[in-house]
User: What shape does this take?
Amino acid sequence: MDIFAKIAAGEIPSYKVAENDEFYAFLDINPLVKGHTLVIPRREVDYFFDMDDDELARYQKFAKQVAIAIKKAFPCKKVAQVVLGLEVAHAHIHLIPMQTEGDADFRREKLKLTEEEFKDIAAKIQGAFGA
Assistant: This one.
């Protein structure tokens, strides 16, 4: 079981913002901006495009719902969707609230947030999810 599957299963703590039977969304612990969230399938699949069309459509629909909640919780111009990353062999979408394209630049310095800040951010997105 990879690290993201363990997070979705609750074996490793995370700052959960949303979930359903198939997908799990949680805060990135090295965020570019406040509200930077990862969305993963619970099923272990390495490559985004290895998912069948129906599963991929449900994944995107769930990610859209999370993005809407992020935008409500952290007003921004847009929520970027970025699919990249070779460091974890588990498909994942980065959702990043942005005022400028620079907010989604992965070369920039990551925020250092306290546990209380992470909890507050997660609570704000959870409160906006499905609202």
Summary: The longest helix spans residues 53-73. The chain has a mean pLDDT of 95.
